[in-house]
Structures are given as C-alpha cells and as structure tokens.
Design goal:
By secondary structure, this protein is α/β, with parallel strands linked by helices. It is globular, with a radius of gyration of 25 Å.
Length: 620
C-alpha cells in the first residue's frame, strides 16, 4: 500500500507496473494498464472545450480511469445516481456534455480502446480544483447538487485511512453499492486507489460471484442496510465470511436486529458510517452484542424522549444525562452512540437540538447545520433522534412524520414503515408498510380495508386526526436505489397510478436486482387494476396485452430505451395471472441493444415470456 492516502497524486504515484489495482471477475487489472486507460480518457477530454461533464460508468475501474482522466483534463465531473430519462433531463441544467454509459439520446462521449493516450507524466492534482458535483439522495425531497473541491475529498480519504486502515490492512474491496454516490465513491474508488488496495470492478449482486477466487486475500465489504438485511445464510456466505476482515455500512442507521444478524453471519458487527453528501463523514459506530446490550435503538430512543404528558415526575435533564453516559450513565448507551471522526466538531443549535458540524470535509471552517436532531453524550459522541425536516404542516397542524412511523412500528403487525406527504388540493399522508408475519396473516385473513382501519386506530391516540394516513401501500420490501436508500420519489412513484376517481393501470413494483443489462422486478397485481375490468366478468385474469405493455414500459424505464417499439417474437402464455397476485418479471437486454427478453414467473412456475424488439438510434 502507498502511504499516505492521497487522491491528488494517484495518477503520478510510483506504481509497480505489474501491481494489481483491481479485478474484473477473475481477470487482474494491472497498474500499467489502468494508468494507460486513464491517460486515454485524459487525452479525449482535453479535446473538449466544455467544462462540466456528467459521468456514468458501472465498472469501477473504468469509472476511476475516466474520473482521474477528467480531473487531469481540468474538468468538473457531475455524478448522477442513474441514467433514467428523468435523471438525464434534470442533468441538462448542470452539465455541458455527457460521458460514459448514458443513452444515445444524450450523445455521450466514449473512448475507444485504441484511442491515443496523453503523453508525459502527470503532476499532482490541484486540491482547489472544483472537481466534483454530487447529488443528495432525495430521501426527503428532490435531489440537490453539492459541489466538492478535491482537497475535501483528499482529507476525507486520509481520515478513513487513519481510522480504519490498520484494521483492513491490504484487503481487497468488494461492494454492493454504486460509486455514483459519495459513500460508494469514497469507499470503493478513492480510498482504495489512494492506498493501493485492489478493487472488484463490478458491484456484488450475489456472494456466489466471488466463488472460485483462489487468492489468499481478505476482503472488505462495502454495503448498506438494505443489502445487509437480505444476507442469505448459505454455504457461499459462510465461505465468504471467513475472509471478510471488515464490513462498512452507510446510507441510514442499521436496524438492531439486522446488525446482530450480520454480526452472527459475518463474524463481527458492521462499522456504520454516518454523514451526508453535504458534510462528508461525521461519525461511526460498531455495536457489540451480549446480554447487557439487549436494548433496541427504539427502546433507547423511548427512554431519551422527555414525555411531559406521561406524568412521571422525572427530572428530564438528569435522566437524559444518565442515559447518555454521564457519571451514572447506563452501560447500554454505547449501543446507539456515534463516535466522531478525527478533527470533526459538533454542537447542537435551536429548540430542536439540531446537529451542527465543523469539519475539514466541508468547503470551509464555518459550522454547517444539519436537519438531524441529536442528543450529545458526555464522552463527545451523540445519539440520533430523528429529522427536523420531517416535521410538516398539514391542516395548520405541525406533524412529525417520524412520530407517525414510530407509532406504526409499535404495532406487532408492522416490520417496516415509511410515510410521505402527498401534495394536492388537500395534503395527505401516505403510508408504505412492510408487514410482519403476523401482519401478513391479518392481511390474508381480513383484507386491506380492515387492516388499514386497524393501523389507523393504532395511531389515533398519538397522531392528529388530520395526519392519519389516507393512502396505504403494503410492500414485500421497501424500494431502494443502487445506494440501498429509499428516496421519497420511489415511494411517491407507487402512488402515481392511483389518482382520485380513477382505477390504477400499473401494478405495484419493487426492483430486486438491477445492472446494465438485467433487471429483476417484483410486481403485485392489485384487484383494482383497470385491466381486470371486463376481462372476464366473474373470473378476472390479467390480459396478455397488459403483460406486454408492462414489460415494454419497464424496459424503457430501467434501460433508458430511446428507440421505438418495433415488434415482438416468441410470445408465450403459460399460466393465467389473477387479481391480488404477486409475481416477478425478469428483463434481459441483449448485447447489441436491439431487443429485450422478458419472462413473468412465480413460485408455481412460468407465467409468460417473449422478446421485445426496438429500433436502434445511430451512434456518435
């Protein structure tokens, strides 16, 4: 490994030419070949007069070559989370041109394998270069652009190495998250490249992707709560776990049960990293599990909340000090406390005790106020207590969306809950629920309307009537993006099909897996879908034309197809789909980009399949 960690000199550091900088499957990528590719990107981008380039490439090693090539060409790189048509349209306000794996309609710049490379050696990058623009995740609203100077990124990488470098030593980096977000960018690209740790180029969808690797290396797993929640207790995972020296998780707090399950499956609890696109890294924690640490985060939060209406007569400030690790503090408080990263300072401001941060990861030395409510601990850490920007006004009442979610989670019928405000003539709260086993039994036994009523009544004692959810969606899992987060837009998209006084035309969908040429989607065909009407009276089934239409619409959405529908082949219907049925759709785009194969299936077998043809736009 190179020391110290410095992203500014990666391209000019004295690599051994045969050193391995990463892997594409089982094929090693040497430093010499990577640097040559980086210089090709530099030469290509130096020939473009425009400054701001949107970059999207799924292969992390090719992405790193393009990123450093752009920086050495003095470009500002704008990173979108995806290449969906709406994202590309929104990028037009922030970029001058596109590069990488964007749809042809964006006229993306690409670099052929035989393109000439830039000549001469590379000097270290200028830390004051405005090298990057990233976007907030959109979890609480529309994604917002955040500019970053290279010096901010360099300091953050050095911080990661100082805190965690000794623990992971020379381990290889595998990730389930995308580098198109700040967390994945730091942990999967910038930090490994600066310290000489090999990177696995493609995001890990299944542990089995690493089967057959014979090198005696250890691995660092860079992941998110959404992925850790789905770890399968398989033989492949047990083999993988023997070589994992550390697991990093970010994108949101990890549920206590998931943290404990991960510790059991991988041998140690994940290192959770807390921060934001605006602030960079702020703090971290690695929980312990044992009889004396059995309280959940919800239990601790309940203890921390000073409920004056409860009539306990307790001294709130004294109780708070005890719970947060004062002289009489409970040992279990360490379960939820976040420890600050080096050189990061925090304080609270305002009535809501909002966390303010001062850090070298910020653009300057001023305090940055976040929207997170916290309680500071006696040892210099803090406990998270929800988001202040999730307090909204509905019917002139101040409503906490966090409080609604907490109320729903107190029901034994609910495993996960998210709520969002739907704007209209009258603002309404929509609830998105993943049911517990008990809740699923209740849904099957009683139906949706009675379950809606039960959950609304469970909230009635603690939530204003005007804020009781009026729209409900029951999901098998929360929808997540490539960073493992659940942006508000993904939730609200589930409601687009249910406008007042109309019957929905699309199923409820959840993306299970996604890469450049394959998408696996879970669908639920609710009984109120318009396509069931009249097809057929008394025994409704899903029309074949609707299945083809959904497949084409989703292929356009997730593959960003710009060409027109040109026909279909090999269309087969194997079994009928009835109302209130859950099933899956797999979409496979061919390498030439001229067709998309689809198949609908369920645990009982095949439902339908076929191939969708589309026209191809001329290349650049």
């Amino acid at each position: 490994m190179r020391q110290p960690a410095d992203i500014l000199s990666v391209a000019c550091a004295p690599f051994a030419t045969d050193a391995i900088v990463g892997w594409r499957g089982s094929a090693a990528v040497t430093a010499d070949s990577w640097q040559h590719r980086m210089r090709q990107w530099q030469r290509r981008l130096e020939g473009v007069e425009k400054q701001r380039v949107a970059l999207y490439i799924e292969d992390s090693l090719e992405f790193a070559a393009a990123l450093y090539g752009a920086w050495h060409a003095d470009k500002t790189v704008v990173l979108p989370a995806d290449v969906l048509s709406a994202t590309c349209a929104a990028l037009l306000a922030h970029v001058d041109f596109f590069a990488g794996e964007f749809p042809e309609s964006c006229a993306p710049l690409r670099v052929p394998a035989d393109f000439p490379a830039a000549c001469g050696g590379q000097a270290p990058l200028d830390g004051n270069h405005p090298g990057l623009v990233i976007f907030t995740s959109g979890s609480t609203g529309q994604p917002q652009p955040i500019p970053k100077y290279l010096r901010q990124l360099a300091v953050e990488v050095a911080t990661l190495e100082a805190v965690f470098g000794a623990q992971i030593h020379d381990a290889e980096v595998v990730a389930t998250v995308s580098h198109q977000h700040i967390y994945g960018l730091l942990f999967k690209v910038l930090w490994p490249m600066a310290t000489g740790r090999p990177v696995h180029a493609l995001s890990l969808l299944h542990i089995e992707q690493l089967a057959g690797r014979l090198s005696p290396c250890s691995w660092v797993l860079v992941t998110s709560p959404a992925h850790l929640k789905r770890l399968p207790p398989t033989a492949a995972l047990r083999q993988f776990a023997q070589r994992v020296c550390a697991t990093f998780s970010s994108g949101g707090p990890l549920a206590p049960a998931d943290a404990e399950a991960t510790a059991r499956l991988l041998g140690r609890a994940p290192i959770e990293v807390y921060g934001s696109s605006e602030t960079g890294g702020i703090a971290y924690r690695q929980r312990e599990f044992g009889p004396h640490l059995s309280k959940s985060d919800a239990d601790l939060e309940a203890e921390l909340r000073a409920d004056s209406d409860a009539g306990t007569g307790a001294d709130s400030e004294a109780d708070l000090d005890a719970d947060l690790g004062g002289d009489s503090g409970a040992k279990s408080s360490s379960y939820s406390v976040w420890r600050l990263l080096p050189n990061v300072s925090v304080q609270t401001t305002g009535f809501d005790a909002l966390l303010s941060v001062r850090s070298p990861h910020l653009v300057d030395d001023t305090w940055f106020q976040t929207a997170d409510r916290v309680a500071l601990t006696a040892d210099g850490g803090f406990v998270l207590r929800g988001r202040a920007d999730r307090v909204v006004k509905i019917g002139e009442k101040r409503i906490s969306l966090d409080a609604i979610e907490s109320g729903l989670l107190r029901s034994k019928l609910v495993a996960q809950a998210r709520v969002a405000v739907v704007s209209g003539a009258r603002d309404e709260v929509a609830a998105f629920i993943v049911l517990s086993d008990l809740g699923r039994e209740a849904l099957e036994r009683q139906g949706r309307a009675p379950l809606n009523r039960i959950l609304r009544e469970s909230l009635a004692g603690g939530v204003e009537r005007v804020a009781l959810p009026r729209r409900w969606r029951y999901l098998d899992a929360m929808p997540v993006n490539q960073q493992g987060k659940t942006p508000q837009a993904l939730l609200l998209a589930l409601l687009d099909r249910s406008a007042p006084n109309t019957r929905p035309t699309e199923p409820e969908i959840q993306v299970l897996e996604q890469d450049a040429n394959r998408v696996l989607i879970k669908l639920h065909a609710t009984a109120d879908l318009a396509c069931f009407e009249g097809h057929f009276p008394g025994t409704p089934i899903l029309p074949g034309v609707a299945q083809v239409d959904w497949a084409w619409s989703l292929a356009q959405r997730y593959f960003a197809l710009s060409a027109a529908f040109a026909g279909m082949q090999a269309l087969k219907f194997h079994s009928v789909i009835r109302p209130d049925t859950t099933f899956q759709l797999e979409l496979l785009r061919d390498a030439a980009g001229r067709s998309v194969a689809f198949r609908y299936f369920s645990p009982t077998g095949k439902l339908s399949s076929g191939k969708l043809l589309h026209g191809v736009s001329d290349g650049i």
